[in-house]
Amino acid sequence: MTNIADYGGGVPADSDVLVVTTNEVPGHRVDRVIGEVFGLTVRSRHLGTQIGASFKSMLGGELKGLTKTLVESRNQAMERLVEQVRARGGNAVLAMRFDVTEAADLGTEICAYGTAVVISPLG
């Protein structure tokens, strides 16, 4: 059975920083825009995983080792994004996105970015 934590992620529900991909949060107002924030990680490929993925790609199917590595990398980028928001006095990120690129054939660069804001409930 697949462990859902191995193939998913995001900010925990009880986090003090809300991260959304939308431009607003229903039921909340933006009190202050802090500005752009990002969290970045660059990961090299594990040789064993890379060799296994090469064989698997010939046969077809999911490359589970690479999928797990990418999930871990995205989660690390998100953690760093949230740390930046806290450090700058925010409690939310609007319009969060991921950018993934190859880093000089050495690994994969994952950047989580968005707009840090301070929000409060309406009414």
Automatic annotation (TrEMBL):
PANTHER family: UPF0145 PROTEIN SCO3412, UPF0145 PROTEIN YBJQ. InterPro entries: UPF0145_dom_sf, UPF0145_YbjQ-like. It comes from Kitasatospora viridis. It comes from the Bacteria. HAMAP family: UPF0145. Belongs to the UPF0145 family. Pfam families: YbjQ_1. This is UPF0145 protein FHX73_11381. SUPFAM superfamilies: YbjQ-like.
